Protein backbone atom coordinates (compact mmCIF):
# COMPACT_ATOMS: atom_id res chain seq x y z
CA UNK A 1 0.00 0.00 0.00
CA UNK A 2 1.35 3.44 -0.90
CA UNK A 3 2.02 6.02 1.80
CA UNK A 4 -0.79 8.22 0.48
CA UNK A 5 -3.33 5.39 0.49
CA UNK A 6 -2.23 4.21 3.92
CA UNK A 7 -2.60 7.73 5.29
CA UNK A 8 -6.21 7.84 4.10
CA UNK A 9 -7.00 4.65 6.04
CA UNK A 10 -6.14 6.39 9.30
CA UNK A 11 -9.31 7.65 10.93
CA UNK A 12 -9.22 11.28 12.00
CA UNK A 13 -10.96 12.35 15.17
CA UNK A 14 -10.17 16.06 15.01
CA UNK A 15 -12.24 17.11 12.01
CA UNK A 16 -9.30 17.69 9.66
CA UNK A 17 -8.24 15.50 6.72
CA UNK A 18 -5.92 12.72 7.90
CA UNK A 19 -3.81 12.46 4.77
CA UNK A 20 -3.36 16.24 4.67
CA UNK A 21 -2.26 16.27 8.32
CA UNK A 22 0.28 13.50 7.80
CA UNK A 23 1.63 15.14 4.64
CA UNK A 24 1.93 18.48 6.42
CA UNK A 25 3.77 16.96 9.40
CA UNK A 26 6.16 15.02 7.14
CA UNK A 27 6.96 18.20 5.19
CA UNK A 28 7.37 20.33 8.33
CA UNK A 29 9.79 17.96 10.07
CA UNK A 30 11.46 16.71 6.92
CA UNK A 31 11.94 19.93 4.94
CA UNK A 32 10.76 23.11 6.73
CA UNK A 33 12.73 22.68 9.99
CA UNK A 34 16.50 22.58 9.68
CA UNK A 35 17.20 22.34 13.43
CA UNK A 36 15.21 22.72 16.67
CA UNK A 37 16.11 26.44 16.65
CA UNK A 38 13.53 26.97 13.86
CA UNK A 39 10.57 26.17 16.13
CA UNK A 40 8.08 28.97 16.94
CA UNK A 41 6.93 27.72 20.36
CA UNK A 42 8.52 26.06 23.37
CA UNK A 43 6.48 22.90 22.82
CA UNK A 44 9.58 20.96 21.77
CA UNK A 45 11.67 22.37 24.61
CA UNK A 46 9.17 22.52 27.43
CA UNK A 47 10.47 20.80 30.52
CA UNK A 48 13.49 21.28 32.76
CA UNK A 49 16.92 19.73 32.62
CA UNK A 50 17.14 15.98 32.00
CA UNK A 51 18.73 13.69 34.59
CA UNK A 52 22.54 14.17 34.76
CA UNK A 53 23.06 10.57 33.65
CA UNK A 54 21.04 11.27 30.49
CA UNK A 55 22.99 14.46 29.84
CA UNK A 56 26.20 12.42 29.86
CA UNK A 57 24.72 10.02 27.30
CA UNK A 58 23.44 12.89 25.14
CA UNK A 59 26.99 14.29 24.95
CA UNK A 60 28.11 11.10 23.21
CA UNK A 61 25.38 11.15 20.57
CA UNK A 62 26.38 12.48 17.11
CA UNK A 63 25.73 16.19 16.62
CA UNK A 64 23.52 15.72 13.55
CA UNK A 65 21.20 13.49 15.55
CA UNK A 66 20.80 15.94 18.45
CA UNK A 67 20.39 19.00 16.21
CA UNK A 68 17.53 17.36 14.33
CA UNK A 69 15.77 16.30 17.52
CA UNK A 70 12.36 17.78 18.39
CA UNK A 71 10.75 16.73 21.68
CA UNK A 72 8.99 18.01 24.81
CA UNK A 73 10.56 15.82 27.49
CA UNK A 74 12.98 12.99 28.18
CA UNK A 75 10.76 9.90 28.30
CA UNK A 76 13.53 7.47 29.16
CA UNK A 77 13.08 5.35 32.27
CA UNK A 78 16.13 4.03 34.11
CA UNK A 79 16.58 0.42 35.19
CA UNK A 80 15.70 -1.00 31.76
CA UNK A 81 18.83 -3.08 31.21
CA UNK A 82 18.11 -6.00 28.90
CA UNK A 83 14.61 -4.81 27.91
CA UNK A 84 13.02 -4.30 24.48
CA UNK A 85 12.18 -0.68 23.68
CA UNK A 86 10.05 0.82 20.90
CA UNK A 87 10.21 4.56 20.15
CA UNK A 88 7.15 6.04 18.39
CA UNK A 89 7.99 8.81 15.94
CA UNK A 90 11.68 8.39 16.63
CA UNK A 91 12.68 11.25 14.31
CA UNK A 92 16.44 11.75 14.19
CA UNK A 93 16.79 9.01 16.79
CA UNK A 94 18.16 10.85 19.83
CA UNK A 95 16.00 9.01 22.33
CA UNK A 96 16.76 5.69 20.63
CA UNK A 97 20.49 6.33 20.91
CA UNK A 98 20.09 7.09 24.61
CA UNK A 99 17.86 4.05 25.11
CA UNK A 100 20.48 1.89 23.35
CA UNK A 101 22.90 2.86 26.10
CA UNK A 102 20.36 2.28 28.88
CA UNK A 103 19.23 -1.21 27.79
CA UNK A 104 22.78 -2.45 27.36
CA UNK A 105 24.10 -4.93 24.85
CA UNK A 106 21.47 -7.55 25.74
CA UNK A 107 18.59 -5.14 25.21
CA UNK A 108 17.20 -3.83 21.93
CA UNK A 109 15.73 -0.60 20.59
CA UNK A 110 13.51 -0.02 17.55
CA UNK A 111 12.52 3.42 16.27
CA UNK A 112 9.57 3.94 13.92
CA UNK A 113 9.07 7.11 11.88
CA UNK A 114 7.26 8.12 8.68
CA UNK A 115 9.77 10.76 7.54
CA UNK A 116 12.52 9.67 5.16
CA UNK A 117 14.80 12.60 6.01
CA UNK A 118 14.70 11.85 9.73
CA UNK A 119 15.12 8.10 9.21
CA UNK A 120 18.21 8.76 7.10
CA UNK A 121 19.82 10.74 9.93
CA UNK A 122 18.99 8.15 12.57
CA UNK A 123 20.31 5.24 10.51
CA UNK A 124 23.53 6.91 9.37
CA UNK A 125 25.20 6.87 12.79
CA UNK A 126 23.57 3.86 14.51
CA UNK A 127 26.17 1.17 13.88
CA UNK A 128 29.18 3.34 14.72
CA UNK A 129 27.54 4.66 17.89
CA UNK A 130 26.74 1.18 19.21
CA UNK A 131 29.96 -0.57 18.28
CA UNK A 132 32.50 2.22 18.78
CA UNK A 133 30.97 4.67 21.27
CA UNK A 134 29.20 2.08 23.43
CA UNK A 135 31.62 -0.75 22.69
CA UNK A 136 28.97 -3.34 21.79
CA UNK A 137 29.82 -6.28 19.53
CA UNK A 138 26.81 -5.53 17.32
CA UNK A 139 24.33 -2.69 16.90
CA UNK A 140 21.32 -3.10 19.22
CA UNK A 141 19.04 -0.55 17.55
CA UNK A 142 17.22 -0.36 14.24
CA UNK A 143 14.83 2.03 12.52
CA UNK A 144 11.74 1.18 10.47
CA UNK A 145 9.46 3.31 8.34
CA UNK A 146 5.79 3.35 9.23
CA UNK A 147 2.86 5.07 10.85
CA UNK A 148 2.39 4.95 14.61
CA UNK A 149 -1.35 4.41 14.05
CA UNK A 150 -0.55 1.24 12.08
CA UNK A 151 2.22 -0.54 13.98
CA UNK A 152 0.94 -3.90 12.70
CA UNK A 153 1.55 -2.83 9.10
CA UNK A 154 5.12 -1.89 10.05
CA UNK A 155 5.78 -5.41 11.33
CA UNK A 156 5.40 -4.77 15.07
CA UNK A 157 4.11 -8.01 16.62
CA UNK A 158 1.76 -8.24 19.62
CA UNK A 159 3.53 -8.33 22.99
CA UNK A 160 6.95 -7.78 21.44
CA UNK A 161 8.12 -4.83 23.58
CA UNK A 162 8.62 -4.19 27.29
CA UNK A 163 8.77 -0.40 27.06
CA UNK A 164 7.25 1.97 24.51
CA UNK A 165 8.49 5.57 24.56
CA UNK A 166 7.44 8.63 22.61
CA UNK A 167 8.49 12.26 22.72
CA UNK A 168 6.01 14.90 21.58
CA UNK A 169 4.66 12.74 18.75
CA UNK A 170 1.22 11.34 19.63
CA UNK A 171 -0.27 14.85 19.37
CA UNK A 172 0.82 14.91 15.71
CA UNK A 173 -1.33 11.89 14.91
CA UNK A 174 -4.78 12.37 13.35
CA UNK A 175 -5.98 9.20 15.14
CA UNK A 176 -4.75 9.18 18.72
CA UNK A 177 -7.12 6.40 19.79
CA UNK A 178 -5.52 4.09 17.24
CA UNK A 179 -2.04 4.97 18.52
CA UNK A 180 -2.95 4.15 22.12
CA UNK A 181 -4.66 0.90 21.10
CA UNK A 182 -1.64 -0.12 19.00
CA UNK A 183 0.74 0.58 21.88
CA UNK A 184 -1.32 -1.59 24.21
CA UNK A 185 -1.21 -4.40 21.64
CA UNK A 186 2.56 -4.06 21.11
CA UNK A 187 3.38 -4.16 24.83
CA UNK A 188 4.02 -7.42 26.64
CA UNK A 189 2.07 -7.92 29.90
CA UNK A 190 3.94 -6.00 32.58
CA UNK A 191 5.17 -3.48 30.04
CA UNK A 192 4.79 0.29 30.06
CA UNK A 193 4.09 3.22 27.77
CA UNK A 194 6.42 5.90 29.22
CA UNK A 195 6.13 9.10 27.20
CA UNK A 196 5.98 12.88 27.05
CA UNK A 197 3.53 14.83 24.94
CA UNK A 198 1.63 18.10 24.59
CA UNK A 199 -1.81 18.49 26.14
CA UNK A 200 -4.34 21.28 26.53
CA UNK A 201 -6.61 22.39 29.36
CA UNK A 202 -9.61 22.29 26.99
CA UNK A 203 -10.88 20.87 23.69
CA UNK A 204 -9.51 23.02 20.89
CA UNK A 205 -11.87 24.66 18.35
CA UNK A 206 -11.76 23.53 14.73
CA UNK A 207 -9.90 26.59 13.40
CA UNK A 208 -7.00 25.82 15.76
CA UNK A 209 -7.04 22.11 14.88
CA UNK A 210 -6.70 22.93 11.19
CA UNK A 211 -3.87 25.47 11.54
CA UNK A 212 -0.94 24.05 9.57
CA UNK A 213 1.90 25.69 11.52
CA UNK A 214 0.30 24.79 14.86
CA UNK A 215 0.19 21.15 13.73
CA UNK A 216 3.92 21.16 13.09
CA UNK A 217 4.50 22.96 16.38
CA UNK A 218 2.64 20.16 18.24
CA UNK A 219 -0.20 22.41 19.44
CA UNK A 220 -3.09 21.97 16.99
CA UNK A 221 -3.24 18.25 17.74
CA UNK A 222 -2.94 18.61 21.50
CA UNK A 223 -5.60 16.59 23.28
CA UNK A 224 -7.61 17.81 26.23
CA UNK A 225 -5.81 15.89 28.98
CA UNK A 226 -9.00 14.36 30.38
CA UNK A 227 -9.97 13.06 26.94
CA UNK A 228 -6.55 11.42 26.65
CA UNK A 229 -7.03 9.67 29.98
CA UNK A 230 -10.44 8.43 28.81
CA UNK A 231 -8.85 6.99 25.64
CA UNK A 232 -6.08 5.36 27.69
CA UNK A 233 -8.52 3.64 30.02
CA UNK A 234 -10.63 2.43 27.09
CA UNK A 235 -7.53 0.86 25.53
CA UNK A 236 -6.75 -1.08 28.71
CA UNK A 237 -4.47 1.32 30.61
CA UNK A 238 -6.77 1.45 33.63
CA UNK A 239 -4.82 3.92 35.79
CA UNK A 240 -2.86 6.60 33.83
CA UNK A 241 -0.22 8.17 36.07
CA UNK A 242 1.33 11.63 35.62
CA UNK A 243 5.05 11.84 36.34
CA UNK A 244 5.67 15.51 35.51
CA UNK A 245 3.98 18.61 34.06
CA UNK A 246 5.58 21.72 32.55
CA UNK A 247 3.86 24.74 30.91
CA UNK A 248 4.39 25.50 27.22
CA UNK A 249 4.80 29.09 26.07
CA UNK A 250 3.46 30.28 22.70
CA UNK A 251 6.01 32.96 21.83
CA UNK A 252 4.87 33.92 18.33
CA UNK A 253 2.35 36.80 18.45
CA UNK A 254 0.29 35.63 15.46
CA UNK A 255 0.01 32.13 16.93
CA UNK A 256 -0.98 33.59 20.30
CA UNK A 257 -3.99 35.22 18.61
CA UNK A 258 -5.01 31.89 17.09
CA UNK A 259 -4.90 29.82 20.30
CA UNK A 260 -6.56 32.47 22.49
CA UNK A 261 -6.87 31.50 26.17
CA UNK A 262 -6.01 27.83 25.69
CA UNK A 263 -3.19 26.67 27.97
CA UNK A 264 -0.74 24.01 26.82
CA UNK A 265 1.43 21.66 28.87
CA UNK A 266 4.12 19.07 28.37
CA UNK A 267 3.06 16.05 30.44
CA UNK A 268 4.99 12.85 31.02
CA UNK A 269 2.58 9.96 31.50
CA UNK A 270 3.17 6.40 32.67
CA UNK A 271 0.69 3.82 31.35
CA UNK A 272 1.15 0.25 32.60
CA UNK A 273 -0.17 -2.87 30.88
CA UNK A 274 -1.12 -4.99 33.89
CA UNK A 275 -4.16 -7.10 32.94
CA UNK A 276 -6.47 -8.04 35.83
CA UNK A 277 -4.36 -6.09 38.35
CA UNK A 278 -5.30 -2.45 37.78
CA UNK A 279 -8.64 -1.06 38.93
CA UNK A 280 -10.42 2.17 38.03
CA UNK A 281 -9.99 3.50 41.58
CA UNK A 282 -7.24 3.23 44.19
CA UNK A 283 -8.33 0.38 46.48
CA UNK A 284 -6.86 -0.47 49.89
CA UNK A 285 -5.67 -4.04 50.54
CA UNK A 286 -3.25 -3.17 53.34
CA UNK A 287 -0.25 -3.54 51.04
CA UNK A 288 3.14 -1.88 51.26
CA UNK A 289 6.22 -1.68 49.04
CA UNK A 290 9.92 -1.38 49.77
CA UNK A 291 12.26 0.08 47.14
CA UNK A 292 15.60 -1.75 46.93
CA UNK A 293 17.62 1.19 45.59
CA UNK A 294 18.71 -0.80 42.54
CA UNK A 295 17.72 1.55 39.72
CA UNK A 296 20.71 3.51 38.36
CA UNK A 297 20.23 7.24 38.84
CA UNK A 298 17.69 6.63 41.60
CA UNK A 299 19.77 4.85 44.21
CA UNK A 300 18.34 6.78 47.19
CA UNK A 301 14.72 7.07 46.10
CA UNK A 302 12.51 6.24 43.12
CA UNK A 303 9.66 8.37 41.81
CA UNK A 304 6.82 6.30 40.42
CA UNK A 305 4.73 9.36 39.63
CA UNK A 306 4.11 12.91 40.84
CA UNK A 307 2.48 11.61 44.04
CA UNK A 308 4.69 8.64 44.91
CA UNK A 309 8.35 8.89 45.91
CA UNK A 310 9.73 5.69 47.45
CA UNK A 311 12.84 6.00 49.59
CA UNK A 312 15.29 3.11 49.67
CA UNK A 313 14.47 0.43 52.28
CA UNK A 314 11.52 2.41 53.67
CA UNK A 315 8.13 0.69 53.84
CA UNK A 316 5.43 2.72 52.09
CA UNK A 317 1.71 1.95 52.26
CA UNK A 318 0.20 1.87 48.77
CA UNK A 319 -3.04 1.14 46.98
CA UNK A 320 -3.48 -2.03 44.96
CA UNK A 321 -2.70 -0.27 41.68
CA UNK A 322 0.61 1.12 42.95
CA UNK A 323 1.54 -2.30 44.33
CA UNK A 324 0.87 -3.77 40.88
CA UNK A 325 3.02 -1.12 39.18
CA UNK A 326 5.86 -1.82 41.59
CA UNK A 327 5.76 -5.52 40.82
CA UNK A 328 2.94 -7.40 42.55
CA UNK A 329 2.90 -11.03 41.29
CA UNK A 330 6.22 -10.33 39.54
CA UNK A 331 4.44 -9.09 36.41
CA UNK A 332 5.59 -5.45 35.98
CA UNK A 333 9.07 -4.77 34.60
CA UNK A 334 9.79 -2.87 37.84
CA UNK A 335 9.29 -5.99 39.99
CA UNK A 336 12.98 -6.78 40.48
CA UNK A 337 13.51 -3.37 42.05
CA UNK A 338 10.78 -3.64 44.72
CA UNK A 339 9.64 -5.89 47.51
CA UNK A 340 5.86 -6.17 47.79
CA UNK A 341 4.37 -6.84 51.23
CA UNK A 342 0.84 -8.20 51.46
CA UNK A 343 -1.76 -9.47 49.02
CA UNK A 344 -5.37 -8.79 48.04
CA UNK A 345 -7.14 -11.31 50.23
CA UNK A 346 -8.69 -8.60 52.42
CA UNK A 347 -10.19 -5.35 51.11
CA UNK A 348 -10.29 -2.29 53.38
CA UNK A 349 -12.18 0.10 51.11
CA UNK A 350 -10.90 3.05 49.09
CA UNK A 351 -7.24 3.97 49.54
CA UNK A 352 -6.72 7.62 50.67
CA UNK A 353 -4.72 8.84 47.68
CA UNK A 354 -5.70 12.47 48.27
CA UNK A 355 -8.37 14.67 46.75
CA UNK A 356 -7.87 16.16 43.30
CA UNK A 357 -9.75 19.05 41.74
CA UNK A 358 -9.20 17.76 38.19
CA UNK A 359 -7.06 20.67 36.97
CA UNK A 360 -3.57 20.33 35.52
CA UNK A 361 -0.97 20.82 38.25
CA UNK A 362 2.52 21.95 37.19
CA UNK A 363 5.22 19.80 38.80
CA UNK A 364 9.00 19.76 38.86
CA UNK A 365 9.36 16.00 39.27
CA UNK A 366 10.42 13.46 36.70
CA UNK A 367 12.60 13.75 33.63
CA UNK A 368 13.10 17.10 31.95
CA UNK A 369 13.26 18.03 28.34
CA UNK A 370 15.74 20.69 27.21
CA UNK A 371 19.43 20.11 27.34
Describe the structure in brief.
The protein is an alpha/beta fold and 371 residues long. The protein has 13 helices and 13 strands.
Model description:
With 371 residues, the protein is α/β, with parallel strands linked by helices. It has helices spanning 3-8, 18-32, 52-60, 63-67, 94-103, 116-124, 126-133, 176-186, 206-209, 212-216, 225-235, 253-259, 320-326; strands at residues 84-88, 108-113, 141-145, 161-167, 187-200, 223-224, 241-248, 264-272, 287-291, 301-305, 308-311, 315-318, 338-341. The radius of gyration is 20 Å and the shape is globular. The relative contact order is 0.15. Mean pLDDT is 87; it is low at 1-16.
Annotation field: number of helices: 13
Strand content: 15-25%
Main β-sheet description: 8 strands, mixed
Instruction: Report how far the terminal alpha carbons are from each other.
Output: 39 Å
Rg is: 20 Å
- Share of helical residues: 25-40%
The strand count comes to: 13
- What is the element string, with H for helices and E for strands? HHHHEHEHHEEHEHHEHEHEEEEEHE
Estimate the mean pLDDT confidence. 87
Low confidence ranges? 1-16
- Strand pairing plus helix content: what structural class? alpha/beta
Overall geometry comes to globular
